[in-house]
Amino acid sequence: MAQDVVLGHGTALNLGTDMSSIMLSKPHRQILKGTSLDFQERMAELGVVSPTHEDATPCIVVATVRDDMEISALSLGLAAQNIRLLRLNVDDLPDVDIVSYVETFELNHGAEALRPVLFWARYLFHHPQRAVPAPGSLGGEVLGTYISQHNSAFIRTIEELSPHRINGDASATGRLAQQRLAARSGLRVPDTTVTRDISRGSHRVQAHNDAPLIGKVVGEHWVEHPPGVLNGTFPRVLEPSALHRLGVEPAPLIVQEFVPHVFELRVYAVGDDTIAYRVEGKPSAEALWTDMDDVKVSVTSLSSAHAAAIGQLIRELNIDFGALDFLVTEADELVFLEVNLVGDWRYFEKAADDSRVSDSVINLIAKKVQT
User: Fold this and answer.
1) How many CA atoms lie within 13 Å of 113's alpha carbon, on the beta-carbon side?
2) Nearest CA among 155, 189, 192 for reference residue 65
3) How far is it between the farthest Cα atoms of the chain?
4) Residue 47: partners with Cβ closer than 8 Å, 6 or more residues away
5) Is the pTM of this model over 0.85?
6) Backbone phi and psi for residue 238, each to the nearest 5 degrees, phi listed first
7) Of 336, 343, 335, 181, nearest in space to 268 by CA
8) Residue pLDDT, tens place only, 46-59
């Protein structure tokens, strides 16, 4: 997602006198500008559309938000290959009609007749249903919730009717289910528990009394509140001396052992391609947003052993696309953390002066359109 306007980092949210959360105590915050640079979207607005004299135009449908710069770049790359991308921004849904769905599935978008062949949910499930209430108006609040709820249902309907979905057959979407697959594939995973009581959870995974722990949210790393403002709930280091003061979280939390490591490894699985980046100098999980100049990202090659282990895991996950995160220890052991099935990639490409993920995503989609 675009890293647009940072509201601040280090200011605790006011959660009320009866609620506290270690994950929301000083979140990284940024604004969604609501600005799309999607080439195909702009051409459609100008009336430059594919001819529809006979058959509907095959298209890719992506559910996302206007600020999704990965999809803006993808739209331009697909346009160069004459592949239509229809963008369904959940924060500003375009006027689209379902006109046929029993024997053939077709949409109307303005003057275009479109036939979805592939659906990609990027941010549909990552943002809450947005209400746009009139201030102080209960009727406005109900109307806003009604509109948001049924816009989401409409997009899910298009997803269900589309013949193919990116990651539609993924074996695991949650972190713990992914870790179980990784362990069964022979990879090391951190000792982990899920609990609301951080102190109690620490006793289950803490091998040494003086070892730090990691706290992670169970679901997505971003909390959107108010609408258009993202609060980043990134992994936190939990120091042993502070554990007794952390109390009980208002929501279940992943508590995990801290694994000493030399560097991090980000591996993109795109169809049959695997593209790896070495990440060094990251002082905290949110540093990719807050301390970008201190983080070093470089293209790297996987050893034969690491490539085999990662390839086995990707097959077990059964994914079309994903960003896999690993730690690499001093003994060159891979430690699996998680797979992000949305996985933004432009930051890593820019930092490493590389374009292979973008190229592979375009090739993946082109192949799926042609089959």
Assistant:
1) 11
2) 155
3) 72
4) 110, 111
5) yes
6) -105, 110
7) 343
8) 777 655 556 899 99
